[in-house]
Design a protein that fits this description.
This protein is 39% helix and 22% strand. With 206 residues, the chain is an alpha/beta fold. It has one domain. The longest helix is centred in the N-terminal third of the chain and has 26 residues.
Length: 206
């Protein structure tokens, strides 16, 4: 019974979440702040887990036609996220730093080699909130790609009581998107993680 319910949810929930995402996008007043130039060049793209409702849409606004994939957990809630992102033309790579890490990293490098951008939430899938796993930084360093950071702040929003304090902007609110591209070239892993975390926290909701 549980498997049947999950199978049904995997079909029904993603289109509903997608419609909610688009409704909030269409009804909000959006302003895009480019902290640094974000070119059409291939990037490793990052946002916090709490900002997943709007940041992938900002990504598609800036890179509307770029082939893209996203590292998403193999948990059930990950399958719902995967189904939703596919509606934005973002292909799921299933796995995480704790489960299926080696396999999903190999998929990520294969995706990059084929010309895709890879989207990652450094604190996903289970936190702690605003923590920085090795994944995004390791992929950027080894692939020699810049990192595209996507943050946003909504004037009015709901905040869920989840580990990531997931943010849902209220309809018709103002949303400021903060977008930047940066290089991690020449940095050691821990130095790059600290630097990326600092930059990602500059424009996120505290």
């Amino acid at each position: 019974m549980k498997n049947r319910l999950r199978s049904a949810a995997s079909v029904v929930v993603p289109p509903l979440v997608y419609l909610l995402m688009r409704l909030l996008w269409w009804t909000s007043k959006k302003k895009f702040h480019f902290i640094s130039e974000v070119s059409d060049a291939q990037h490793v793209c990052v946002c916090w887990h709490a900002e997943l409702l709007m940041s992938p849409q900002a990504y598609r606004k800036i890179h509307p036609a770029q082939p893209a994939s996203a590292i998403i957990s193999s948990h059930f809630d990950g399958s719902l996220i995967a189904g939703t992102l596919q509606l934005l033309g973002i292909r799921p790579l299933r796995g995480s730093s704790k489960k299926g890490a080696r396999q999903v990293l190999m998929q990520a490098f294969k995706s990059i080699k084929s010309g895709e951008e890879v989207l990652i939430t450094p604190d996903g899938p289970r936190g702690p909130r605003h923590s920085m796993s090795d994944g995004a930084v390791g992929i950027a360093l080894k692939s020699h790609l810049p990192v595209f950071i996507m943050n946003y702040q909504a004037k009015s929003y709901w905040e869920l009581k989840s580990w990531d304090r997931f943010v849902i902007p209220k309809p018709f609110t103002k949303i400021d998107f903060y977008l930047q591209s940066l290089s991690l070239e020449g940095m050691a892993l821990e130095e790059a993680k600290a630097f990326l975390k600092e930059k990602m926290l500059e424009y996120t909701i505290p």
